[in-house]
C-alpha cells in the first residue's frame, strides 16, 4: 500500500484540520502499516454534509464510506447521525480516528511526510457504533477533541438506498418531527368494514401546528418502519412516485393506478397494486381516525407518520395491525310464487340482501327490475352458482331443475350510494311480471319541431297492445343532473302529481319497424326546461318507466 495515494482522496483542508502535532520523521513498522490501511479507508470516501439529509445508493456487497471532521472545542460538542433504510436491512457503523495522534502532510511528488508524537504510532481508529437491521436508528455523540469520523454502509441482500442525516447544531430545531415518549398506535375500535385508531400527539405538532401533519398508511402485507420504505415498496411494484413526499401528492402527479380523494380536509391516495391496495391518508393534526371502506374478515397493517411539510422529513410511530370482523350472516327472506318484493340496499349499513325460494315446479323464472343505483345478482341452486351478473333495467333468469330445489338469491350493492331492486319468482312463464319491452327505452325529441310553447317527442312500442302515459314537469338547470341520477325507475304514475299528467294512449304494431309513436305537447312556457317521462303498462299492471328526457323550449320564435 503506497500512502502517496492519500492526497488524491482527502482534501488538503481536511488534512490541515486534522493535524495538530509536530513534524517528526519515523520509519514504517508493521503496526504503522496497519494504521495506514485504516487511514486509507477514511480518506477513500466522501464528505458527509452537515445539516442536510443525504441519499446514499448502495450496491450489493460493496461498502460505501462517508466521513466528517469535528474540530477541537473547549466544551463537549454534541452531534447526531440518523440513518433511514429505505428497503432491505443494512449494516452500518461509525469509526473514529483521534487526529491529534498522527497525521500526514504532502511532501512533493515523491510521497508524503509522516508526522507523529511516537515512533511506534499505534492505530487510534476505533469503532464506536454498529447496527444491522431496517429500522430508523439515531446515534447521539459528544466530542471535545479534533477527530475524524467515518460512516461505513453495506447491503448484503440487494441494491438499495438509504438516507443519512448529520447535524452538529442541535440547538436550531429538528429536521425530523419528534415522536412522543410512547409512540405506539392504539386500536380502539374494530367493525366489519372500519378500524378506529388513536395515537399520542407529537411534540412537534403542538409547537408547529401549521407545518406538521399526520399521515396514515394502510395495507394488507406488513408494517413499514419509515415513509421512505413505504414509497420504495410502491415504486418497486411499478408505481411512479414524485421525488418529493408521496403523501403530499398533487392531482397532476397521480398515475392511472392511483385514486385521490379529498373530503373533509382529508387527503386519501389509493395505490392500486398487483399485490393489493395501499391506502395513504393525511388528516392534518387529528390524532384519532376511523379507517373506512375496509373488507370484512381481513387483516390490515397501519402505520402513522408525522410529517414536516416544509422539509418533507418524517418520523414513524410504531406500527400496529387489526383484523376486521367477519361479515354477519345475512337475514334470509322467503320468496313466494308471484309475489313482488322491493329490496333497498343501503350502501353504507346494509350492502347485501338474501332471498330464498323452494321450487314447486321444475321450471322457475326470476324477474328483476333495477330501480336505482347498481345491483349485483348471485343465484345459487342447492349451493351451486347458476347466475351471476350486474343487472340494469329489466332482467329475466329462466332456470330448470327439480321440484324442491332450493334457490338462494344474493343481492349486493357494489357502491356506497343507495340501490334498490324489485324481485319476483314465478313458475308461470306465460304470465310475465313485466310487459313486453321495446328494443330501447329511450325518449327522443326533435329539435327542429321545438317551438316557444311546444315540443315533440317519440318513443318505441311493441307488437303487443299496451297503455302508455306521458308526464311532464318543469325543472331548473341545476336540478337536471340530480334528477336523472336519482330517478327511481320502479316508481309509477301514482308518485306523480295529477297536474303533471299529459295524456295516456294505447298503440302497437305487428311490424316492429313501424312500432313508434310521437306526441306534440303544447301549452308550455318559452325558454323553459321540462322533464318528460313515459310509463308503459302491461297485463300485470306493473309499469315500466322509460329513461327521462329533458327538453328546453325555444326562447324566441
From TrEMBL:
<dbReference type="GO" id="GO:0005576">
    <property type="term" value="C:extracellular region"/>
</dbReference>
<keyword id="KW-0524">Neurogenesis</keyword>
<dbReference type="InterPro" id="IPR055271">
    <property type="entry name" value="NDNF_Fn(III)_1"/>
</dbReference>
<dbReference type="InterPro" id="IPR045805">
    <property type="entry name" value="NDNF_C"/>
</dbReference>
<protein>
    <recommendedName>
        <fullName>Protein NDNF</fullName>
    </recommendedName>
</protein>
<dbReference type="Pfam" id="PF10179">
    <property type="entry name" value="NDNF"/>
</dbReference>
<dbReference type="Pfam" id="PF24354">
    <property type="entry name" value="NDNF_N"/>
</dbReference>
<comment type="function">
    <text>Secretory protein that plays a role in various cellular processes. Acts as a chemorepellent acting on gonadotropin-releasing hormone (GnRH) expressing neurons regulating their migration to the hypothalamus. Also promotes neuron migration, growth and survival as well as neurite outgrowth and is involved in the development of the olfactory system. May also act through the regulation of growth factors activity and downstream signaling. Also regulates extracellular matrix assembly and cell adhesiveness.</text>
</comment>
<feature type="signal peptide">
    <location>
        <begin position="1"/>
        <end position="21"/>
    </location>
</feature>
<feature type="domain" description="Fibronectin type-III">
    <location>
        <begin position="435"/>
        <end position="543"/>
    </location>
</feature>
<keyword id="KW-0964">Secreted</keyword>
<dbReference type="Pfam" id="PF19433">
    <property type="entry name" value="NDNF_C"/>
</dbReference>
<dbReference type="InterPro" id="IPR036116">
    <property type="entry name" value="FN3_sf"/>
</dbReference>
<dbReference type="InterPro" id="IPR013783">
    <property type="entry name" value="Ig-like_fold"/>
</dbReference>
<dbReference type="GO" id="GO:0008201">
    <property type="term" value="F:heparin binding"/>
</dbReference>
<dbReference type="InterPro" id="IPR003961">
    <property type="entry name" value="FN3_dom"/>
</dbReference>
<keyword id="KW-0677">Repeat</keyword>
<dbReference type="GO" id="GO:0007399">
    <property type="term" value="P:nervous system development"/>
</dbReference>
<dbReference type="InterPro" id="IPR019326">
    <property type="entry name" value="NDNF"/>
</dbReference>
<dbReference type="InterPro" id="IPR056225">
    <property type="entry name" value="NDNF_N"/>
</dbReference>
<keyword id="KW-0325">Glycoprotein</keyword>
<keyword id="KW-0732">Signal</keyword>
<feature type="domain" description="Fibronectin type-III">
    <location>
        <begin position="177"/>
        <end position="314"/>
    </location>
</feature>
